[in-house]
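User: Design a sequence. Structure:
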């Protein structure tokens, strides 16, 4: 924990009691905090905007939508926003296309050029006095200019400020996307998906790819989608229509080779499975290509975009079942790439480019180079790697780029199997992969969210999602410190810096476990682990020196979050995206509980060892009774652990239902119930030891019969 951060957070609350709200509002971030950071920014000064903004009428229908979206965002922050020529305002916004004489005059007066590279999605913002002009050659450019302007306005209601600037900006990568796992647990509600689209667009993401193994409701495969956990045709049509004015293309990803276990458990599909009820389609079975053709024909009819994503990653059991002889004869790479060619041929009538994961094919660069020209032209290799790579990421791309294939890069937010994403790992991974992808000509970035164990909450992932948006839009290597100092202000409207510091605290907590304790990071497995199980005792030995520091990081994060909330209440400018703040706080509380659980387990074992040693000493009976009560009595440590799991389970369920359908939730909440019940049972068992001591002043030996483990060498009695 950094002392300076503690002082800053505490000092803000102390000063806030003395300073008028208007003065607090004037302490706006400087330099200007923007995500993504535009290529060229020249600040021109700030003006108070208590009367809000007036947006001059736009002619183009798309620009009218962009203006309406901007006005709604301002209204949500309590900032008056008027569309039209009438009405009072603190400043005006005019939307101009580059072809208009007025746009040319504004550009010339501000000494701003609109280069050809800006035509597709670029924009210019010119602030002069109390007037802002946004200029674009396309509806995308106007829309993205308004998204930047949203961030240039800080505060809310009467405390709003416009931070003026002259900006030229355009993206480094054509496709900037999110791949969201909808097949290993949480399936978002339609309303939350709409919210995702709005937020994606606000940070210039233009592609959303729902990842599905068995989540699409296929007409020809009605067994695939689970009740309450599938995307219907109505859902899809609604999302596509909603996303269009936000300039977001929805690209369906349906696994077409591996990751099909949920389908292949059905007896009907066993003949197509490489191994019975397995994970991988057997490419030699004629029905495999027929099934894939049926699926993607339906998806092509439902999704109008230029891409379909066929997955095809991690085909780990290929060659272990029905295809074994073929793999032994021709080789794994040949069999794999032959199947991809067959899929490409079968889906050619759909006239879509096919995305596929590059992890298997990259192992055979010679075979990639030998692919037919039509396959190279029509298929896009999405290279993925989710760890930082000190030596760079080029090796994941060159097998495809050197063969003349288009490539995208795919980093990850490192949320999988974590109590909260490990953003220390994620930011370095995203930064490096985007940089190296741009260097070798990759045209897209597909950032990934995975829910391997089904416990992920997307509201925990926005930090990594927004940095991915920045890294794909900005040229070269995006600055992590710049992003980290901007996120809280831009995404949450937090003027204190506390949300940013809370994120850093959890990054440091993960690093503590990985780099010092050498046990990986703060995983869900560690959270659920029984500290008195065989594995728990092994981990306890490694974790014991670091539990205090782990908890200090987590508790400091919680404190910072609560202080940010209090400051927002005081100024009257509410924080934004509070569900994500709740998820951040839940992550910090779960991380703190990991440390508490192992601490209390040690204390109970050591306390009972002391009680056993002192049971014959009449002078210590009162102290010994207290020792037993602290283990298993009212407000004892066993009840602390019961209470911890119970409370966190309640908070988790609330967080789940804010964004997801009820489908699957019980698989996770059952774990909270199970662990709550474990400590209820142990407390009940331990009361027998208390009763025995009250009756005879003797104690049974430690063991599972009284809810305690047998003595462990690492937990020595303390006297």
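Assistant: Done.
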């Amino acid at each position: 924990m950094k002392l300076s951060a503690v002082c800053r957070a505490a000092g803000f609350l102390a000063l806030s009691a003395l300073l008028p709200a208007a003065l607090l509002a004037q302490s706006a971030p400087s330099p200007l905090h923007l995500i993504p950071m535009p290529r060229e920014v020249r600040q021109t000064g700030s003006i108070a905007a208590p009367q809000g903004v007036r947006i001059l009428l736009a002619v183009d229908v798309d620009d009218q939508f962009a203006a309406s979206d901007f006005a709604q965002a301002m209204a949500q922050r309590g900032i008056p926003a008027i569309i039209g020529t009438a009405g009072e305002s603190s400043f005006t916004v005019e939307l101009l296309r580059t072809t208009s004489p007025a746009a040319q005059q504004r550009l010339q007066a501000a000494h701003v050029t609109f280069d050809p590279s800006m035509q597709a999605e670029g924009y210019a913002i010119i602030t002069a006095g109390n007037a802002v002009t946004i200029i674009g050659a396309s509806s995308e450019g106007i829309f993205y200019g308004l998204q930047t302007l949203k961030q240039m306005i800080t505060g809310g209601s009467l405390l709003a400020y416009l931070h003026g600037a002259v900006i030229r900006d355009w993206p480094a990568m054509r496709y900037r996307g999110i791949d969201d796992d909808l097949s290993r647990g949480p399936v978002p509600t339609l309303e939350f998906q709409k919210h995702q689209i709005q937020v994606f667009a606000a940070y210039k993401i233009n592609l959303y790819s729902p990842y599905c193994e068995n989540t699409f409701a296929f007409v020809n495969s009605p067994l695939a989608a689970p009740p309450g956990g599938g995307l219907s045709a109505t859902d899809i049509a609604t999302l596509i229509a909603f996303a269009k004015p936000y300039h977001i293309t929805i690209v369906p990803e349906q696994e077409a080779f591996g990751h099909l276990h949920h389908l292949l458990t059905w007896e009907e599909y066993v003949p197509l499975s490489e191994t019975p009820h397995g994970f991988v389609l057997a490419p030699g079975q004629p029905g495999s290509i027929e099934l894939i053709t049926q699926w993607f024909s339906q998806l092509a009819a439902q999704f109008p975009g230029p891409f379909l994503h066929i997955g095809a990653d991690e085909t780990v059991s290929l060659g272990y079942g029905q295809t074994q002889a073929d793999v032994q004869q021709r080789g794994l790479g040949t069999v794999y790439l032959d199947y991809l060619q067959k899929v490409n041929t079968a889906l050619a009538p759909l006239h879509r480019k096919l995305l596929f994961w590059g992890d298997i094919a990259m192992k055979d660069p010679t075979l990639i180079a030998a692919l037919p020209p039509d396959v190279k032209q029509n298929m896009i290799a999405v290279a993925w790697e989710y760890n930082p790579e000190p030596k760079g990421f080029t090796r994941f791309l060159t097998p495809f780029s050197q063969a003349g294939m288009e490539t995208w890069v795919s980093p990850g937010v490192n949320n999988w199997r974590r109590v909260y994403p490990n953003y220390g790992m994620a930011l370095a991974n995203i930064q490096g992969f985007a940089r190296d992808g741009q260097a070798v000509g990759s045209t897209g970035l597909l950032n990934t969210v995975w829910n391997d164990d089904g416990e992920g909450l997307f509201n925990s992932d926005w930090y990594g999602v927004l940095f991915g948006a920045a890294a794909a839009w900005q040229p070269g290597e995006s600055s992590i410190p710049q992003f980290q100092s901007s996120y809280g202000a831009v995404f949450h409207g937090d003027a204190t810096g506390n949300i940013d510091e809370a994120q850093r605290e959890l990054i440091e907590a993960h690093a503590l476990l990985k780099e010092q304790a050498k046990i990986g990071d703060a995983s869900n497995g560690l959270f659920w682990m029984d500290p008195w199980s065989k594995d728990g005792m092994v981990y306890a030995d490694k974790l014991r020196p670091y539990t205090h520091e782990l908890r200090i990081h987590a508790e400091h994060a919680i404190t910072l979050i609560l202080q940010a909330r209090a400051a927002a209440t005081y100024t009257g400018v509410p924080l934004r995206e509070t569900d994500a703040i709740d998820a951040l706080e839940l992550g910090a509380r779960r991380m703190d509980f990991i440390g508490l659980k192992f601490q209390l387990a040690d204390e109970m074992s050591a306390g009972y060892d002391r009680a056993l040693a002192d049971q014959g000493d009449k002078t210590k009976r009162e102290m010994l009774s207290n020792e037993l009560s602290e283990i298993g009595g009212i407000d004892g440590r066993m009840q602390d652990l019961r209470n911890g799991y119970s409370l966190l389970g309640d908070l988790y369920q609330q967080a789940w239902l804010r964004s997801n359908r009820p489908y699957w939730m019980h698989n996770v909440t059952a774990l909270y119930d199970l662990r709550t019940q474990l400590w209820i049972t142990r407390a009940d068992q331990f009361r027998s030891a208390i009763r025995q001591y009250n009756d005879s002043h003797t104690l049974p030996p430690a063991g599972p019969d009284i809810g305690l483990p047998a003595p462990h060498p690492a937990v020595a009695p303390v006297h």
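The domain at 40-169 is CATH 3.30.379.10 (Chitobiase; domain 2). The longest helix spans residues 578-614.
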